[in-house]
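Supplementary Methods, section 5.1.

A reviewer requested that the exact input to the structure prediction be made available. We therefore reproduce it here, unchanged from the version used in the analyses.
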Amino acid sequence: MNFKNKILIIEDDFIVRTSLVMLLETYDYDISESDSGESALEYLTENKMHLIITDMRLPGISGENFILTANEIDKNFKFIIYTGSHEYTLSQALTDIGITEQNIIHKPIQDINHFKKTIDNLLAS
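The structure derived from this sequence is encoded token-by-token as follows.
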């Protein structure tokens, strides 16, 4: 059986989302995508993911509220916060569920090797 790590990307910007999907598919991950937190939560009720990469500024519910709600669905989800804000700081609610500075990747990706290592470290934990 061919096991692939399943990653969900939540990004409302089509070009950014598509670029991220194409990048990660080159590493042979099984990629799913969503343009909102609401549709991603619906997707998660029927699909198991190993890692979720989410933008923080989304239409509808924010990335933070998405993470907190998804964490209630399954405490085993791993998260990467993918944000364009270099001033972004973690809230206490996110640190309380185990999100750390190592879970934050800033747009645009400056170091693809670091990004892949972050993904692989989270998938291995």
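The chain has a mean pLDDT of 94. These observations are discussed further in the main text.
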